[in-house]
Amino acid sequence: MVIETFPAGPLGCNCSILVDPASKSAIVIDPGGDFDLIRRKLEAAEARVTAIIHTHTHIDHVGATAEVQSWSGAPARIHEDDRFLYEMLPVQAALLGIPLPAICDLDGDLADGAAITAGAIDLGVLHTPGHTPGSVCFLVKSAAGSVLFSGDTLFRRGIGRTDLWGGDPRAIKRSLKGKLLALDDATRVVAGHGPGTTIGEERRANPFLRNG
Ligand SMILES: [Zn+2]
Ligand SMILES: [Zn+2]
How many domains does the chain have? Predict the structure, then answer.
């Protein structure tokens, strides 16, 4: 499996492309914007997108979703509890002062425990509400170890804000302690914004995970 992560869109959301080298099947995580950039990377990898998946539906994580969807024909998938946020994209756009992106139909089937496959890639869904009600993390196991795509639930030395629509500070603590800190220390973390980290590093050094 080849994983490429790069900032995309107006707020620099980390978009990831996972490609299975044998089948060229690919998964796109959080196409936040910059469709041309995402398309060029997929074309360079000769990849065929089989799923477009989202850690949550804040506008900076879905900005290029409709374009990737119509170009690839792959289903665009979310956790159902975040559908209301997609339906209020105009409100999100107005609040953040960024243009309203094109929209598309979404499948709300990223439930806790669901598996998404692309060739030999097998990716699991962890429902981690708090930043938004339908926030999820994606866990993928590879020969080089496990990788967690944590969205805006866990950052390097930080956690997601809970003051936006449907945010819940108690729920995010439950998600972090119950689901993410239950993972192996060696698990690499690709966060929704900014640099990556590991579960072990955050267990030791993230001030938001220490108490409460
Ligand atoms: Zn967010
Ligand atoms: Zn974000």
Answer: 1
CB under 8 Å to 108, separation ≥6 — which residues? Answer: 77, 78, 79, 80, 83
Q: How far is the CA of 183 from the centre of ligand 2 (A)?
A: 22
**Residue 93 is part of a domain; what is its CATH number?**
3.60.15.10
Question: Nearest ligand, CA of residue 7?
Answer: 2
More confident position, 63 or 143: 63
Q: Could you say which DSSP state residue 109 is in? A: B
- Per-residue pLDDT, averaged over 6-25, amounts to 97
User: pTM for this one?
Assistant: 0.97
Could you tell me if 70 and 105 are in contact, meaning their C-beta atoms sit under 8 angstroms apart? no
Ligand 1 center to residue 58 CA distance, Å?
Answer: 5
What's the gap in Å between 149 CA and the centre of ligand 2? 12
- Output the pLDDT for position 144: 84
How much distance in Å is there from the Cα of 61 to the middle of ligand 2? Answer: 6
Residue 211's pLDDT is 63
